[in-house]
C-alpha cells in the first residue's frame, strides 16, 4: 500500500528548464508551474465547486470556438512557456490559429513557447488574490491580448488588456470577447447561480 506524504518546497528553490521537465515527468499527477525566476509552484487540486465552474467556462469558450474556428482552446492542465521563461497553466486559454500553426510539431507537444492570446483565471479557495493578479499581469506583459480574472467570492471580474489598468465589473455585466474573440459574450450569472 502506498501512503501519501506532503511535499514542502522552499520558496528559495530554483529549477532550470531541464529540471522542471524531469520533475513534471516524474510526477504526472501534480499540477506544477515555474516562475520566470525558476521558482517551482505546486498547485493544489481544485475544489469541486471551482472544478465545476472551470468546466462550465471551458465549455462556453470551446462552443464559441467551434462556431468560430479561429484558434485553439486549452484547459487548466496545459502549460505554456511564456517569453519571460515562466511556465504557466491558465484555467482556460485560447491561442489564435496563425500563432499556433507557426509552432513546430515538437513545440506543440511540449510546453508550447507561446503566451495565449486570451486567458481566464478563476479565483479558488486556495488562491491568494495578489498572486493571481500578478499572474494576470504577467500574461499581459508577455503578449496576452485579453484576460479575465473571475472572483466568485466578490462576484466581480477584473478585465486585463495591454497598456491599460485592469477594469473591474460585476457578474451582472456580460463579458465581451472584444476583437480577440469576436462575437463571444459570456453571461456569468448563468454559471455562478446561488
Helix fraction bin: 25-40%
> Could you please say which CATH topology applies here?
tt1808, chain A
CATH superfamily: tt1808, chain A
Category from helices, strands and their pairing = alpha+beta
**Unreliable parts:** none
| Total DSSP helices | 5
Task: State mean pLDDT (0 to 100 scale).
Answer: 89
Defining key terms:
single chain; 194 residues; alpha+beta; tt1808, chain A; 5 helices; 23% strand
Description:
The chain is of the alpha+beta class and about 190 residues long. The protein has a single domain, classed as Alpha-Beta Complex (tt1808, chain A), CATH 3.90.1570. It has 5 helices and 12 strands. It has helices spanning about 15-25, 50-65, 95-100, 105-110, 130-140; strands spanning about 30-35, 40-45, 70-75, 80, 85-90, 90-95, 120, 145-150, 155-160, 165-170, 175, 185. The strands form 4 sheets. It has a 6-stranded mixed β-sheet with strand order 3-6-7-8-9-10, with helices on both faces. It has a two-stranded antiparallel ribbon with strand order 1-2. It has a two-stranded antiparallel sheet with strand order 4-5. Strand 1 and strand 2 (about 40-45) form a beta hairpin. The radius of gyration is 17 Å and the shape is globular. It starts with 16 loop residues before the first helix and ends in an 8-residue tail after the last strand. The mean pLDDT is about 90.
Please specify the SSE layout and strand pairing.
Elements: H1 17-26, E1 31-34, E2 40-43, H2 48-67, E3 71-74, E4 80-81, E5 87-88, E6 92-96, H3 97-101, H4 105-109, E7 118-122, H5 129-141, E8 146-151, E9 156-160, E10 167-170, E11 175-176, E12 185-186
Parallel strand pairs: 7-8
Antiparallel strand pairs: 1-2, 3-6, 4-5, 6-7, 8-9, 9-10, 11-12
Amino acid at each position: 500500500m502506498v501512503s501519501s506524504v506532503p511535499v514542502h518546497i522552499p520558496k528559495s528553490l530554483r529549477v532550470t528548464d531541464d529540471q522542471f521537465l524531469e520533475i513534471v515527468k516524474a510526477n504526472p499527477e501534480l499540477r506544477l508551474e515555474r516562475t520566470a525566476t525558476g521558482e517551482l509552484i505546486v498547485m493544489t487540486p481544485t475544489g469541486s465547486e471551482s472544478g465545476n465552474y472551470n468546466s462550465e467556462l471551458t465549455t462556453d469558450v470551446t462552443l464559441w470556438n467551434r462556431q468560430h474556428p479561429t484558434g485553439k482552446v486549452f484547459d487548466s492542465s496545459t502549460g505554456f512557456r511564456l517569453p519571460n521563461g515562466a511556465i504557466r497553466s491558465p484555467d482556460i486559454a485560447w491561442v489564435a490559429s496563425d500563432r499556433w500553426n507557426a509552432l513546430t510539431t515538437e513545440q506543440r507537444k511540449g510546453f508550447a513557447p507561446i503566451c495565449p492570446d486570451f486567458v481566464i483565471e478563476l479565483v479558488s479557495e486556495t488562491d491568494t488574490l495578489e498572486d493571481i493578479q500578478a499572474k494576470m499581469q504577467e500574461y499581459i506583459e508577455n503578449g496576452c491580448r485579453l484576460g479575465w480574472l473571475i472572483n466568485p467570492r466578490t462576484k466581480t471580474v477584473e478585465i486585463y488588456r495591454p497598456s491599460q489598468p485592469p477594469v473591474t465589473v460585476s457578474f451582472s455585466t456580460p463579458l465581451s470577447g472584444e476583437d480577440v474573440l469576436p462575437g463571444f459574450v459570456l453571461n456569468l450569472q448563468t454559471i455562478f447561480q446561488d
